[in-house]
Protein 1
Amino acid sequence: MANEIIIVEGKSDSQKLKKIYGENLITFETNGLGIDDKKLNSIKELSKKNKIIIFTDPDGPGKKIRETIIEFLDVDVFNAFVSKQDIDKNSKKIGLAEASEEAIKKALDNLITYNKKNISISWDEYVKNDFYIKANRIIIANHFNLSEDMSSKSLFKWLNWMNLKVKDIEKIIGE
């Protein structure tokens, strides 16, 4: 994972990834929602020479951190996702550190590129094709290991960031 920096929420996430991939893996810890302008500017500086991979927890704060970073950067951002189902059932936390090694490897092998400049579908297309309906949102969310609780507005934004076209989304729903 040369020239890659994985953005995680905390120390235990970094430790888990380094246990799997070795101590040479480079992570950047946001310290949860404590991500501030200084950290965002550091990430922006790192993005000039490195591939940025966001790998946050599959919960509300993780989603917020991911959106904050994507909105701040002007480059393609790579995203790794684990789902809540990938978390150890005996854990009280819903974090990356509690995910299985297999789920982490799968997530990092299946990165999704986001770019905030992408506009691949319009709101009219989104509504006309019933992508906003909860049942369809759940199918789409599960396909990408996103939260099933994601709002219609957020999903619309994220689908654009992924540069998905109507036919791509229809294919996902039809699977």
Note: Residues 118-175 form one domain.
Protein 2
Amino acid sequence: MKKKRFNSDIEVQAFARHICMSAHKMRRVIDQIRGRSYEQTLMILELMPYRASYPIFRLIYSAAANASKTMGSKEADSLISKAEVNEGTFIKKLKPRARGRSYPIKKPTCHIIIVLKDKSKKPKSFLERKYGFVDKYMIGK
């Protein structure tokens, strides 16, 4: 499996793992916010009546705080470039029943990945990321 490239100059990731909710219910909310701006996303999530919106709200708020801390960018300039929900493990419990028997209960969990992109910054070239600068002799004419 190939690893996807991550441009740390203009993007910030945030992960939430083992959230006790099915991935299908989370995707219903995530599909509404993918590709929107940070401020618009927070307004949408506050007004949604679903239980899944609160963990996503907290995660996006955390990702914006990471962006302002690491890159020094404004939260208003952020855009949700990637929002992904994957299935996690099942929490397994036993429910006691009649005559000393027990029934298994499987509660699904999910993992969320949010990537915020800064609209105001431009991505750096390969040479700028590798050497920290670009000289006119490096480019070649």
Note: Strands lie at 11-19, 78-96, 102-118.
